[in-house]
Amino acid sequence: MTLRGEKIYLRALEPEDLSFLMALENDESVWEVSNTITPYSKFVLKQYLENAHRDIYEVKQLRLVICEIETQVGIGFIDLFDFDPKHLRVGVGIIIFSETYRGKGYASEALKLVINYAFTHLSVHQIFANITEDNTTSLSLFENAGFKNAGNKADWILSGNKFKNEFFYQLINKK
Question: Which residue numbers delimit the N-acetyltransferase domain (predicted)?
Answer without folding.
Answer: 8-170
